[in-house]
Design a protein that fits this description.
The complex is a heterodimer of chains A (about 170) and B (about 210). Chain A is mostly helical and about 170 residues long. Helices cover about 70% and strands about 0% of the residues of chain A. Chain A is built from 9 helices and no strands. In chain B, helix 1 runs parallel beside helix 3 and helix 3 crosses helix 6. The longest helix of chain B has about 60 residues. The chains are: A mainly alpha (about 170), B mainly alpha (about 210). Chains A and B meet through helix 3, helix 4, helix 5, helix 8 and helix 9 of A and strand 1, helix 3, helix 4 and helix 7 of B.
Chain lengths: ~170, ~210
């Protein structure tokens, strides 16, 4: 076992015992952890400059004022979805190679040493090893970088479907 | 007056429509590409699509650029399908003969990718051949197993490609509708002009027919 390996395991054992953030800033930061793409929040297109410019451009093509507003909002909304799609595609969750490749069974002596240097409880060590094994299974199930990227972008399909349907409807009904 | 239309292009709203669509092109020509992708290839695709437009109005140009982006995404996802297979093949090779701990998965993956491309050096080729022999697999066996292993993710990528096709269909219908609308307006203008000229001729005739 290398020193890095021991240190990584020690860090992860300590992290498992963490009780979470305590400061207000820390709590706010961790509250944003699950924010993925922001597509569920209502967009405010009317206050942006692009919206007005698009309306002016579309109006010259003979669309009514309402249709222009619909089309401009539809186009900006579709762009928003596609930008989020690109961001999700490019900034995927990294593969935790340490967790994926670590030999849990061979790490049991280190767990024993970390949990209680003077003589550990076998039950605690077994639980820790089981926890690591479970985390490793999850990590391996997610696959490599391309699998993760596909799985993440797949979650945005419904936003894309709604976005293009809205745009298409606005253009055809205009 | 100049407006910044979404991606950093300035459009003068007092410009003629043809000029506006031209001025929209620079903003459409700066798409979000990946580091290994060719901007000129993207541009040539966009230009060929735009050249097929009868009436390149700004809205039509914007929709065609979205269409081109969808085509680009289909290309990306098609490459991803092949990469998924490579990934699964590398995983199977790493696991073969209980060598999960001894073989570095990423190293196997990179070597295998080069091996399949034909760009691997002698050592790498021998190494991959050695692992294949050790696990009693041929390359085609490995590919079949990898396909089975990665089926779930390949299905996801197929869904993504299908979604892009659906998006293109929507965009195509929207472009057709704009085109039809502009033709309809042109036709109505012509009919109106014809009616007006008919009316004016009738008016002249009726004036001529009036008894003195």
């Amino acid at each position: 076992m290398t020193m890095n390996h021991r240190r990584s395991l020690a860090n992860r054992c300590n992290a498992l015992q963490s009780t979470g953030p305590r400061s207000v800033a820390g709590k706010w930061a961790s509250s944003q952890n699950s924010r993925k793409h922001g597509l569920n929040s209502a967009p405010d297109f009317e206050s942006c400059l692009e919206y007005k410019a698009l309306i002016d451009l579309i109006a010259e093509e003979g669309f009514s004022t309402f249709a222009c507003a619909d089309i401009a909002a539809g186009l900006l909304n579709y762009r928003r979805v596609m930008d989020a799609y690109y961001d999700t595609y490019t900034s995927r969750e990294p593969v935790d190679e340490f967790l994926r490749d670590v030999n849990v069974r061979a790490s049991v002596p280190i767990f024993r040493e970390l949990l209680n240097p003077s003589g550990s409880e076998p039950q605690d060590v077994r639980e820790m090893a089981a926890l690591f094994a479970s985390m490793q299974r999850q990590e391996r199930r997610k696959g490599g970088p391309v699998s993760r990227r596909s799985a993440d972008t797949h979650k945005l399909i419904r936003y894309q479907r709604n976005g293009i349907a809205r745009l298409s409807r606005a253009v055809r009904q205009g | 007056m100049l407006y910044n239309v979404h991606f950093g292009i300035y459009v003068d709203v007092a410009m003629p429509v043809e000029d506006k669509s031209k001025s929209l092109l620079p903003f459409l020509s700066s798409p979000k590409l990946l580091p290994n992708e060719s901007g000129s290839e993207f541009q040539s695709g966009l230009q060929s699509l735009l050249s097929e437009l009868d009436n390149p109005s700004p809205l039509a140009v914007a929709l065609v650029s979205q269409l081109n982006e969808s085509l680009w995404w289909i290309k990306r996802h098609t490459v991803d399908k092949e990469l998924l297979l490579y990934e699964a093949m590398a995983r199977l090779l790493s696991k073969a003969g209980n060598h999960w701990d001894t073989y570095d998965n990423r190293k196997v993956s990179e070597a295998l990718e080069r091996y399949l491309d034909g760009s691997a050096d002698k050592d790498e080729s021998e190494w991959i051949d050695g692992i294949l022999a050790e696990s009693k697999l041929t390359l085609s066996d490995l590919r079949v197993r990898a396909f089975k292993d990665a089926a779930k993710h390949i299905k996801m990528v197929d869904d993504l490609i299908h979604r892009q096709h659906q998006t293109m269909r929507h965009l195509q219908r929207s472009i057709d509708s704009i085109d039809y609308k502009s033709r309809l307006i042109k036709r109505m203008d012509l009919e109106l002009a014809a009616l007006e000229s008919k009316q004016s001729v009738k008016g002249v005739l009726s004036l001529d027919d009036e008894p003195s």
